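Protocol step 4 of 6: structure prediction from sequence.
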Amino acid sequence: MGQVILLIDIGNSRIKWARAEQGRVGAPISAPPEAASFEGLGQLPEAPERVLVSSVAGQRLDAALCSFCEQHWSLRPVFAVSEPERLGLRNAYADHRLLGVDRWLAMLAAWSRCRSACCVVDAGTALTVDLVDAGGQHLGGYIVPGTRLMTAALEQRTADIARHRAAEPGAPAGQAAPGRNTADAVAAGSRQAQAGLVRQALEQLGGSARLFLTGGEAAQLAPLLAGAEHRAALVLEGLLLQLGASGDDRDA
């Protein structure tokens, strides 16, 4: 059997983890972004030999994870950082460290899968859209609020919308048709705004570009985007590509 690696993606709205063995990433498990969620790692069938982490949630959760791993497995987690280049993918940022590591890893996984022009969308608390050309050059990206942030902004600044949404049933996930009540109109409008941005980004890359979706809201966005490839573990796949080479992370 190959080395067992635990991959962890600590985001703003969810924590995901999955086991990787022999270069394959298993189905991810999702939990709330709380330190208590790490206790679920204690239910793994066997202790990992390495723990690799992508984190954008801040020092508190990072420290909680480090403490858990050291106490349970005598392991030091290895945290990924954005790089200027890897596997032919080149970062567009002048200071590569300022690109969110989750965006970098998602692009790395997508690029490694297709080796062609691609658009990488992470739909979560925020919606991020990154463009990569056919030569592996990251062209930059877009960041807009996710659907929950869009809705919250409307409710905070428009009293009528907040009142009507509270009294009306919510729209089904992924609804795209024009809303016939306020709740449906807000939900459909938010989804269409995001889908429109993604379509515009794809036009910049040309007709043959691949479209990859990941993140907690990806399943709701996918029906609005023809040809989209939904990969729930895209960030974890990139994490394995960047840091998966054999190493010894155990405490001395």
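Step 5 (inspection) to follow. The helical segments are 59-73, 101-114, 147-157, 159-167, 182-205, 218-221, 234-243.
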